[in-house]
């Protein structure tokens, strides 16, 4: 059973995981593809983002339809349950393409709590 956690903390968990991914993601797809520890690091934190997003209340999701909530949750489910089907190139594209956008979105939502 998952522990109760405030929505603000779930969003902060997402932001912290994005920070960790961006801090160590490497400079290129080639570097990412040749570094298994980096892959594991990034995939774990993508899973954290997805798990945290699942527990964000629906009212926040409805108020922020620009966030791809269902896609984030689907990524978490793929990583947790269909790990053998993970496409590392797609993961890299998420890291370099989606994380900056998600960072801005989550930062904006968190600012509403202040």
Q: Helix content range of the residues, please?
A: over 70%
* Structural class computed from helices and strand pairing: mainly alpha
Which series of helices and strands comes N to C? HHHHHH
Rounded Rg: 14 Å
Low-confidence stretches: none
Gross morphology is globular
Distance between the termini: 29 Å
Search tags:
mainly alpha; 114 residues; 0% strand
Describe the structure.
The protein starts with 6 loop residues before the first helix and ends with a helix. The protein is built from 6 helices and no strands. It has one domain (7-111). The protein is globular and about 40 Å long. It is mostly helical and 114 residues long. The model has no long low-confidence stretch (mean pLDDT 94). Helices cover 75% and strands 0% of the residues. The protein has helices at 7-24, 29-33, 36-54, 58-63, 69-81, 88-111.
Give the topology.
Elements: H1 7-24, H2 29-33, H3 36-54, H4 58-63, H5 69-81, H6 88-111
Question: What's the short story on this structure?
Answer:
The protein has one domain (7-111). The chain is 75% helix and 0% strand.
């Amino acid at each position: 059973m998952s522990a109760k956690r405030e929505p603000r903390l779930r969003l902060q968990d997402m932001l912290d995981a994005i920070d960790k991914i961006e801090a160590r993601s490497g400079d290129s797809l080639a570097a990412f593809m040749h570094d298994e520890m980096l892959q594991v690091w990034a995939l774990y934190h993508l899973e954290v983002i997805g798990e945290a997003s699942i527990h964000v209340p629906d009212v926040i999701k409805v108020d922020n339809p620009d966030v791809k909530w269902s896609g984030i949750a689907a990524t978490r489910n793929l990583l947790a349950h269909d790990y053998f089907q993970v496409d590392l190139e797609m993961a890299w594209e998420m890291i370099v393409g989606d994380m900056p956008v998600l960072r801005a979105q989550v930062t904006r939502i968190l600012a509403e709590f202040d």
